[in-house]
Amino acid sequence: MNALAATNRNFRHAARILGLDSKVEKSLLIPFREIKVECTIPRDDGTLVSYVGFRVQHDNARGPMKGGIRYHPEVDPDEVNALAQLMTWKSAVADIPYGGAKGGIGCNPGDLSKSELERLTRVFTQKIHDLIGVHTDVPAPDMGTNAQTMAWILDEYSKFHGHSPAVVTGKPIDLGGSLGREAATGRGVVFATEALLAEHGMSIKGLTFAVQGFGNVGSWAAKIIHERGGKVVAVSDITGAVKNPNGIDIPELIRHKESTGSLKNFQGADSMDANELLVHECDVLIPCALGGVLNRENAADVKAKFIIEAANHPTDPEADEILAKKGVVILPDIYANSGGVTVSYFEWVQSAYDLNSSNLVVKYLNFSRLANETIQQASEAKILLKFYSSGLETIGNRESDSQTSDNIQGFMWDEEQVNKTLQNYMTRAFHNIKSMCQTHDCNLRMGAFTLGVSRVARATLLRGWEA
How far apart are CA 90 and CA 192, in angstroms? Predict the structure, then answer.
């Protein structure tokens, strides 16, 4: 079963549990917009090559659509559609005022030079610039893209629409990015893991972990787990896999990969078959790479007691059933890897909102009124009310300083504030999921889906779109 079929299946299951009206269910399932564009660029040798780019905008009932752009050879419409839908539910589970979107280009970024990647990114932005925007659809990095990619998108978009730092998140700090954003998804995975383990009377310290995927998410998650006393006994990526029953020195492994580009020949661990990692002896398995890696072929052999889905859709439905019968607890992707989009939200509000005191007071008063009227259940008013309130305090402090100057790009949070706020969001979301599990007598995946779908459905009904 491909990712789109599996995602639709989970959504329909949640809709049945919630008793959604069929019109609402159909409205939430069909994407708002699907975009397919041709991107032709000259290679460095002068030859022309064409690629196909996609952007699926799934839903905007709760706010601007939000989702990454990935560069990977296997990018296709079904995958992008599924990931866009997951972003809708993920944003709602995190209770941030976004809908869902996703994009990508079918290419192998490793085969392209930096200048070729820049040309491809700029052409793609030219094709979609009228369909994205600060309050419409906000891209972010994903597989095969990074802060530099976002900088190119920001620059190209600004040629058409003026300086708009909040049109993308995950951008460089020097262009209005947020401290803590690079580590956010991996750090959020750790916060989610801690919340789950605490529910079982356990902590990270002393447990064994296997991490599949050692890119941005996997390396940060492994590093933080190592710092907190967890024992990472196996790590893999596309270059190979290593194991050490006594625990791998993760900082040393990161340095080794940075210097060699590979996990191979690392002196602090033994090599192993990458496929064996998923069934390696450990307490906690964290898949951080591609989807569908846990399936009917290997699910019965999984030895982990807990699976933390740091990747999108790493467990197919057949594996889900097998693992459930084995008593394995799975923390679903739409919660476990939501740290990235949550800190993207923090970056967005830092970039998007004017801290000119008179404008901020007007916004504060408007959102104070909205938060106490008919949309009291809408999270955007509540969250932005907190943001503007803290901004007023910031302005009050700044205006007492003789060196105060207006800052049209908002105020910058320090990294400690970003991480602490992320932990609060992740912990609260876990308890909300558990509450849905108890209400509907379901597992964590359906607890997360019913939580996300119910929030989007409420926003849809309030806006009257189901008619």
Answer: 13
